[in-house]
Amino acid sequence: MLQSAEYLPGRRSKEVRRRPVASVLRWRPRLAAMLMLMIASLAVDSTAVASETGPGLIADLQIDGNYALFAVNGPVVNKPSCVVWGRYVFDVTTPRGQALLAYLLSAQATGRQIRVYGTSTCSIFSDHETAHSVRDGQ
Questions:
Q1: What are phi and psi for residue 11, nearest 5 degrees?
Q2: What is the pLDDT of residue 78?
Q3: Is 0.90 topped by the overall pTM?
Q4: Omega prior to 9 cis, within 30 of 0
Q5: For residue 106, which of 1, 21, 32, 76 sits 20 to 30 Å off, Cα-Cα?
Q6: May I ask the CATH architecture of the domain 52-136?
Q7: 12: three-class secondary structure by DSSP
Q8: How far from 86 is each of 15, 28, 30, 75, 103, CA to CA, in Å?
Q9: Starting from the edge strand earliest in sequence, which strands make up the sheet with 129-136, in order?
Q10: What is the phi/psi pair of residue 94, to 5°?
Q11: In the chain, which residues have pLDDT < 50?
Q12: Which DSSP string do the residues of 38-66 spell out, in sequence order?
């Protein structure tokens, strides 16, 4: 009868193959530092290319099917090349989209200035930037 690999002569048992705890702990700080560096580089890259408009008032707000389109009067930073009309778009069928729409309607009704942050992509409409977030303009 053939024995399992861990009991064959000349093979190491499972206990011998385990790494000592000291060698594993030695790598943890290095791995943590590398992971933090990767996360930080992703955060810097994603915010560096995002567009921003405002502070300004909502100049135009429309609903087109499942999507809301809006524009803000104010300075634009990092506008993507795909944007033709200078408007943002988002899906109103999602909870996030419904919250954005409620915020925009409130800001428009009260005359409050806002800032808009885009994704720097035109993923919903080919000539309107997809909105990422909105906040007060002050």
A1: -100, 150
A2: 83
A3: no
A4: no
A5: 76
A6: Beta Barrel (2.40)
A7: coil
A8: 65, 48, 45, 11, 20
A9: 58-64, 67-72, 88-91, 129-136, 114-118, 52-56, 76-77
A10: -95, 155
A11: 1-6, 37, 40-48
A12: HHHHHHHHHHHS--EEEEE-EEEEEEETT
3-class DSSP assignment, residue 16: helix
Residue 45's pLDDT is 40
Q: Which residues contact 124 (CB under 8 A, 6 or more apart)?
A: 67, 89, 90, 91, 130
pLDDT at 53: 86
Which value, to the nearest 10 degrees, does the dihedral of the CA atoms of residues 35, 37, 39, 42 take?
Answer: -140
Write the CB contacts of 68 (distance below 8 Å, at least 6 apart in sequence).
61, 62, 89, 90, 92, 97, 100, 101, 104
CA atoms of 135 and 100, how far apart (whole Å) = 10
> Token pair 């930037």 is at which residue?
129
Q: Where are the domains of the chain?
A: 5-45, 52-136
